[in-house]
Amino acid sequence: MIDDLPPLRDVIQRHGLSARKSLGQNFLLDLNLTAKIARAAGDLTGADVLEVGPGPGGLTRGLLAAGARKVVAVEKDARCLPALAEIAAAYPGRLDVIEGDALEVDIAQHLTPPIKIAANLPYNVGTALLTRWLDPPQWPPFWDSLTLMFQREVAERIVAKPGSKAYGRLSILAEWRSEARIVMDLPPQAFTPPPKVRSAVVHLVARPEPLYPANPRILRDVVAQAFQQRRKMMRASLKRYPDIETALVTAGIDPKARAETVDLERFCALARVLDGKG
């Protein structure tokens, strides 16, 4: 055991916490696994940790046991609050629970740097939250690292390289502003209820500045257009831009190339050309 609190199965039974599909919930009950995820987040001593969707608190307990200075947990499901209150009582002054939707709460004001984010993200909001954390108005962001669980398919999209089927908008955004790698695989049977897909934990460390210079808005737009119809040639998918063939050639991209073969450096070069800075 990582602490003196009861096993999670007992907690779930006592509080009647059946996982709800509508909230994207799949509870991870093995405290050895939650402790392993907490360790994957790196040295937590002296750091505040943001957790989204703690549920009955398995990962919360792992993060606190690993030495997090403070954990701020955002939970939408009010049924989980009594179980989280028990953890807060066992770790005095180190767990703040905010009831609300992580997509709507201004989380940064509740945390003191250095800040790490670690979460078994609800499947239905995982990608939206990751995109928000990787694409804030200012860079560097309020967080130092992200240690997040996704469906394996989403995890593969985050770390994908050019030429692979998983490579796309998420891969480019992640590589541009972070160093990302998959650090853990989890089978469906690790969860209650077991999802129909495998899961994986991705660790992302924020870069001090983006890997290549580019206007974020233009890069975001170019990449979205290019991958909207990923089988089209770039000159066709980006035809809304004036004189796109010349711009592509200037950026070192074959106008007949498809988006899935173009690397981040070339996309950033194209964004600079379209911004008049190439």
Topology:
Elements: H1 8-15, E1 27-28, H2 31-40, E2 48-52, H3 58-65, E3 70-75, H4 81-90, E4 95-99, E5 115-120, H5 126-134, E6 145-151, H6 152-159, H7 169-177, E7 178-186, E8 191-192, E9 199-206, H8 216-228, H9 234-237, H10 244-250, H11 264-274
Parallel strand pairs: 2-3, 2-5, 3-4, 5-6
Antiparallel strand pairs: 1-8, 6-9, 7-9
Helix pairs in contact: 2-3, 8-11
Distance between the termini: 57 Å
Tertiary shape: elongated
Strand content: 15-25%
Structural class: alpha/beta
Arrangement of strands in the largest sheet: 4-3-2-5-6-9-7
What portion of residues is helical?
25-40%
Q: What is the CATH fold-level name of the largest domain? A: Rossmann fold
| Biggest sheet statistics | 7 strands, mixed
The H-level CATH homologous superfamily of the largest domain, spelled out, is Vaccinia Virus protein VP39
Specify the CATH architecture of the largest domain.
Answer: 3-Layer(aba) Sandwich
